[in-house]
Amino acid sequence: MSCTPGSNQEQSGKDLKWWQLSLIGVGCTIGTGFFLGSSVGIKIGGPSIIIAFILAGLGTYIVFEALAKMTVQDPQKGSFRTYARKAFGHWAGFSNGWVYWSSELLIMGSQLTALGIFSRYWFPKIPLWMFAAGYGVLGLLVIFIGMKAFERLENIFAVLKVIAILCFIVIAVLAIFGIIHGGEEYKPNVPNNMTELFPLGMKGLWSSFIYAFYAFGGIEVMGLMSMQLKEQKDAPKSGKVMLLILTVIYVISMGLALTMVPWKEFNTKESPFVIALHDYHLPYIPFIFNSVLIAAGFSTMVASLFAVTNVMMNLAEDGDAPAVFAKKGKRGISFPSLALTAGGLVASIVVALLLPKEIYEYLTTAAGLMLLYTWFLILLSCRRLVDQSGLDKVKNLIGLLLILIAISGTLWKPETRPGFFVSLLFVVIIALATLKMRSIWKKKGEKASPESKRM
After folding, report:
1. I want to staple 208 with a disulfide (CB 3.0 to 4.6 A). Which of 45, 147, 154, 240 is the partner?
2. Region of residue 182 (left: phi > 0; alpha: psi -120 to 50; beta: else)
């Protein structure tokens, strides 16, 4: 889902070319949200999930373009948090930072659960929470020991994720043309009418939107990395190419999976790609593919651990979190922030223990919603801070509308509704904390009104 904003780039200066950022974005964005979260989307929306992916790709690009434009005109370390503060006041920067931190925490829990689900492919009798605990401890050890060696492995994992999807596409095409055969004669499951395309109606498509958007999560990190571009003006082009590649890969691979297996056979216990390959005479391929999914999922989980810890450090440095979380140890890591992250991991594992069947859907829905709240404020900040053309304003409105559709769609299905209320609980807690902080800022003489100057 996300990627560690590369220290390598920071060390080498602004020498990143636009196409390099595009490739980095592809590798960093592909994660458990696509490899497993798409299964939930298929279960809710059926084949119409393909339409959701296309529209989510469009919405994600609009968000990236808005963030890239703000970054080009006014590079800021705090990125979208700083822009929200400039646009609407201190309260917006504070609440946006905490909403994003909460979303990353939920994403981390979702990834832990996904890793456990992948591992149960081999060991179905071992409880999910035990796998979640094991991967969580291993991830914390990686952060504690140091990220340098792991950052090098991140590039390998990024390539593995792309190769895995491309290999699946090749295998699926071979199956379609009858070069490889499954247990029964291959009959492509192609929708022939609107009823087959929308087997669960428009509400199914509406409710599946959140999982399509979730597969594109991490675009806000790309906004941060765009500061390392050699030519800042190339940031929008980089995002356009990256999201075009991602959308094409997602749509083709998901479409092929749906032609290989009837949509009703997909479930949330296995990756849709492992399910699609299950009935074909391919020795070790499902085993290898599942191994790649675990490696890829672990890499994004560690990246989320790193992101959560660093976001907390940045909040503390800006005075929006207790100062103790900004204190760094000998390894350059804030151990109080890492301890808070570990607490979040423990909470995720406890929830996995209490709700072993529903946990992934709940966490994924809540994480996706919290991320979309951040994206929504990015678009609003851009409207306030950047001089937009008529076309830009229309695109901004389309992005806001698509995000609202994804958010509201979670209310239609019993599988997604609890996730909505979990995200709402986080928002209410953050809102109450923001109200408390506003009184403190007023005592300190800070202005509560937005800094409405144009960049």
Report:
1. 45
2. beta
* Residue-wise pLDDT tens digits, 227-262: 677 777 777 788 888 888 889 999 999 999 998 888
Look up residue 1 and give its two tokens: 């889902």
- Per-residue tokens: 301: 């989980």
CB 42 within 8 A of CB 355: no
Helix H segments across 1-79?
7-12, 18-29, 32-35, 37-45, 49-73
Show the tokens assigned to 392: 């830009």
- Decide: 64 and 239 in contact? Cβ < 8 Å: yes
Give bridge partners of residue 280 from the DSSP assignment.
Answer: 182
pTM: 0.85
pLDDT (tens digit per residue) in 401-421: 999 999 999 998 888 898 899
Which pair of structure tokens corresponds to residue 117? 């689900």
Three-class DSSP labels, 305-373: HHHHHHHHHHHHHCCCCCHHHHCCCCCCCCHHHHHHHHHHHHHHHHHHHHCCCCHHHHHHHHHHHHHHH
Distance CA 99, CA 314 (A): 14
